[in-house]
Amino acid sequence: QHGRVKIKSTAQQEEEKRKEREKKLKIYIAARDACFSKRKEGICDDEALQLTQQLLSSNPDFATLWNYRREILMHLEDEVQKIYEAELSFLESCLKVNPKSYGSWHHRGWVSARLPQPDWARELSLCDRCLSLDDRNFHCWDYRRMVVKMSGVPVDQELGFTDHLIGSNFSNYSSWHYRSTLLPLLHPESPEPLCLSEYELVQNAFFTDPNDQSAWFYYRWLLGRGITKLVTCGALFLSLVFQAQSVGLLLVLDGQPQRVEWRSVHPRFKHSPVWICDLPPGTISDITNEHNLTVHWTEKHTHRDCALYTGRTESYCRDSATDQELFRSELSVEKTSVLQSELQSCNQLQELEPLNKWCLLTIILLMRALDPLGYEKETLAHFQTLKEVDSMRSAYYSDLCSKFMIENTILKMEYAEVRVFSISDKNLTTLCHLDQLLLVTHINLSSNQLQRLPPQFAMLQCLEVLEADNNNIENLEGLFCLSKLEEINLKNNNISTLADLQPLASCPKIKRLDLRGNPVTQMAKIEAELAELLPSVTDILL
């Protein structure tokens, strides 16, 4: 046995490690308590500086100690340049312990901003080194942006920096994002030659690795750059309905301001695109003449005009979705040509990668921008493929497809100049843009996959007939105070209790209600209870 190294057992090793940890912990706790005591007594001396350095060297995420250290540094008035440069060196050692330490990067920014003669080149070099180790270190990216701003680094130089990082790694999402903040500064007007070079750069990225999302996100931003939308929409009734973001509305009738109370269409909405007021009885006694109505939105210094025509009891003033370019912006010839070219490129990639979700989704969005109605069939097919290849996000794709189908139906309705909205058997899973259906009198939502009529449904203030058979509806919260609603068809849904039907009590003119095929019809005495809840209904189908 002589001359041989004695091998310790696992139990011995663990015991020694435990004792070593306990020893270090006691030293750490003692130093921490000493720091807290000094801070409580307002002591800011060299010993406190050394104690915080000892603790932060092993645990750079102790925010209280960084705060104390800043208090100490602010009390040191001699040789500030030397002290702060030493602090920067100490911070580098902390970043080696944890390169993503919130406290270390924040403290470095604080020190650099207070340094009498900062060496910004050194700070940029530090950022380069950190990003070479982890190109998605967002703490370092934030610090770099501060350094660039403080030192006045030219924008084109930073753009070249992103070129270098992207060239070495197409998957560098942070570089793509930084690039999207720099380009508008360097080229506010988005010149065509620049766009083409950017399209070529990003296409090289996603043709190289079609499954990497970084380039696709940048591509989406690039395609949408320069497309702006101005959305204003309103509708006015004798019981006035006006679209705005908040109540700051003044009603003027024939030149005279009126004292009215505005309310949203549903109690849950403190902020709403639609507000209603009732004109007091006798406000308009002469309906044989035309009257002028103006609503002033005081917060936005804008107003809307409409007229109450002779013999009419209601008046409308509303911009259409097509006039507003609500769902797509009017494209110039040049922009259309570029988007068509990009669609062709994506279609080529899709032929090579038919199951690539990023490519499919981008194709859908390009088709929406170019011609939503003309590409409707292709869009639906691509959504079906998306739900199959990316099943974990199928609900998202279903909701997005529903949104697009509703937009298309609104456009078709406006082109036909009708007040009937029919979107049955489209596999809808959600409802949106309901503020665009203010004037609809008849809506058909049958044979979809809807589970609820959301509070926003109360924006359909002119609705008279609702058809929503063959869905999965179990919540009718949106059927609130629809004063013109007369007929409701809810056959084969999932309404299970009388409480689910309670919102209908706020609709005073309902005459016909079809609930066949709902669980609620199996309840005892349901017919009598419905008669009590909805006294205006004369035809109940159970």
From TrEMBL:
Catalysed reactions, as listed in the record:
geranylgeranyl diphosphate + L-cysteinyl-[protein] = S-geranylgeranyl-L-cysteinyl-[protein] + diphosphate
Concerning PANTHER family, the annotation shows: GERANYLGERANYL TRANSFERASE TYPE-2 SUBUNIT ALPHA, PROTEIN FARNESYLTRANSFERASE ALPHA SUBUNIT/RAB GERANYLGERANYL TRANSFERASE ALPHA SUBUNIT
For this protein, what is the EC number?
2.5.1.60
**What domain of life?**
Eukaryota
Q: Which UniProt keywords apply?
A: Leucine-rich repeat, Phosphoprotein, Prenyltransferase, Repeat, Transferase
Q: GO molecular-function annotation terms?
A: Rab geranylgeranyltransferase activity; zinc ion binding
Q: Which residues form the Rab geranylgeranyltransferase alpha subunit insert-domain domain?
A: 243-321
| UniProt-recorded name of the protein | Geranylgeranyl transferase type-2 subunit alpha
Would the keyword Transferase turn up in this protein's UniProt record? yes
InterPro entries, alphabetized: Leu-rich_rpt, LRR_dom_sf, Prenyl_trans_a, RabGGT_asu_insert-dom_sf, RabGGT_asu_insert-domain
Q: Where is it found, in Gene Ontology cellular component terms?
A: Rab-protein geranylgeranyltransferase complex
Q: Which organism is it from?
A: Echeneis naucrates
